[in-house]
Amino acid sequence: MALNQSLPSSTRMSSATPDTAMLEALVPGYTLISRFFLSYFHIDLTAYLQYVVALAVFAVSLRYISKYASEFFQEYLISYAEIRPDDELFNHIMWWMSRQSFMQRTNHFVASVRANVYFCDSDDEMDGSEEDSEDDDFDTDDFSDDEKESQHQANVVSRKKCEPLRFTPSEGRHFFWYKGRLMILERQQRTRNGAWSLFNERLFLSCLGRNSSLIKELIDEASKAFQNRDGNKTVIYRAQRHSRADPFVWVRCMARSPRPLSTVILEENEKHNLVKDMKRYLRSRTRLWHSNRGIAYKRGYLLHGPPGTGKTSLCFAAAGELGLPLYLLTLNSNSLDEDNLYTLFADLPRKCIVLIEDVDTAGITHSRGKTATIKSKGDNAAGADTEETSTEEQSSADKPPLDKSVKDGITLSSLLNVIDGVASSEGRILVMTTNHVDRLDEALIRIGRVDMQVFLGYSTKENIKDLFTSIYMPMESDIPGNDKTELKTDWSNCHNIEKRKIKIEWKKKKIQDYRNHVESLRSRIHPLASEFASIVPGGIFTAAEIQGYLLNHIDDPEMAIKGAEVWAKELRETKRPREEKAIENGYY
């Protein structure tokens, strides 16, 4: 009887042997699992095999169906735009996104206090300007109370200790609404190497529908908002790279208020001719004229003179006068090679100013030989000895050991090709500065590469008078209006009406006293400037030296005049050789 009862079970096991063997091969341990279920739960898994297979087939089919459905959906029902991180538009989008309301509600974001390519010091000034205007009282220096001024400065320092927080969308997808439509911002890294990099990611903007006009409107709005934040400021870029494996790119570093050209101490004719020549070059018909005649559309300038005479300041002031961005490039970087130099000049916009400071210190601009920018630690003369001997004439004992792993760097030939070669960029203004024009190779400063040279020498008597006047002459923006003061007072914490009126009257009196002081200073500024110029000798001091002294007495021009003779005497003792040379040249 027992044998008859066990027969069906063995029969079932034997009949299921092929299926069991197949499942054992696909699912290791299936036989043990099936026996466990059969012994303890009296469930034969073989009986449900067809359902398991059907479920597996359905899961696999669903996976492929969802994949193709997603591709079809993205291809025909979604519009998206990719913004590359090496493009300036990436900074525009990220800056605009960080100021949207959805960033205040999202729970996935990147928080930082460090400035980067789309956050800079100018942003902090704009974000804090309104707060400062509400909290700061009008400061009249000598007319203000010392105790209140100390308290005010303490409050400002305490407020500046707190770095502004910056929030940007983190890696992943972010949903937000724009003009009543659902938008998706997706940030993803190209390679997951564990290191986050601003230039190692991809940014996508997408929305439902085949019409991409909404995405274009968002990008246009973000770009205009980013550019409008600068106003009339001069935007400065510099060449840098984030790692050794990355190429050099132009990175925005700051936006500064333009410097008035009148504050640069130089002969008026020299400044006028320089700016006039730049404006003439930037005209549309000048570009057309060059194109019709097959002449390269580019312009080069060389500003040379002793250190501290205002060469960089003149270039910065010219950029502000013309409303052009300024691109800073140094040739002293050991990691900058020919390929990176070509790429940097190729990425320049149509109208801009490229400034190469101290071009003579690069060690390549005074020799035609293949001299790399890599210099020894003790070479402070910037390769001055190569003026008399060429690279080929140097003995092999003086040359550093050849290291094939180190690139040759920039050569004079590559620099000349970038500036004036067949593949050189057009439309830009190139400005080079140097303290020693005699160290430059003649091919670098010939006509066509350098179209105008401007010499900035030591300050003459007229320069000294102009510098004194520019520092101490009050400007209209220095005097606040009463309307603004009343507006600020309305937001004060004065609860008593009488106290508020007293405070308003007190501020009005301070402003009126300051106005009287300004008017008095304006009427005597020119006699004071002449007196100062009669004390300080011309042709000996640079504009930077004189300006540094005057800034020590920024609130008291009379005190500056009183100590000018002692200051000039002490400084002349250290510059006696320069004075003798100035006498020979007829400056003094």
From TrEMBL:
GO molecular function: ATP binding; ATP hydrolysis activity
GO cellular component: mitochondrial inner membrane
Residue span of region Disordered: 125-157, 370-404
Membrane topology listed for this record: Single-pass membrane protein
Keywords: ATP-binding, Hydrolase, Membrane, Mitochondrion, Mitochondrion inner membrane, Nucleotide-binding, Transmembrane, Transmembrane helix
Sequence similarity: Belongs to the AAA ATPase family. BCS1 subfamily.
Protein known as: P-loop containing nucleoside triphosphate hydrolase protein
Species per Swiss-Prot/TrEMBL record: Penicillium atrosanguineum
Upper classification of the organism: Eukaryota, Fungi, Dikarya, Ascomycota, Pezizomycotina
